[in-house]
What does this fold into?
Amino acid sequence: MMDLLTRRNLSLQAAAQAQLVMAKCNIVHNAPIDPVRVAEKRNCEVRFMALPSLEGVYSPYPSPVIVLGSQRPSGRRAFTCAHELGHHEFNHGTRLDEFSDSYSHKGKDPDEFLADMFAAFLLMSQGSIRNALRIRRIQPQEIEPIQIFRLSSFFSVGYSTLIDHMTLTLRLMSQQRRKSLLRIRPK
It folds into this structure.
């Protein structure tokens, strides 16, 4: 199990690398990000395949390639693509990520945590989240499920992924608000 200091240091490292990648790819911080396009700009080929029990695969050999499960929801595919790109950016070598419905990082391999945090910061940087909230005149502690759903669609991520990132990483919402929002699953 990773201690809090390790998790914090890895999160900072992931945020810095995500910012670096965005700068190298000339990405505007306020706009939604297409992780497939970013991966391709970072010299990673992206392929889609029917992978019922897998989220994605990254292999640096013979040339960098990311394989995504084509049957997964679009928000999940976007996050997985950014996650696999994290493995590429941090030179983690070949990775095979199995299907999981959990955001929990307790006991997670540090490389997997780092790739998750990279994906989160790439797709949902603190600046882009704050800007989206400001433009829409939304206070995080008063946000409604439909507003979260619209924001998650805007950022091309899952509903619960956005809630967890805003709460657990960015600390924009309380745990109580998180639990309340997670009880509802708009479609």
Notes: The two ends are 34 Å apart (CA to CA).
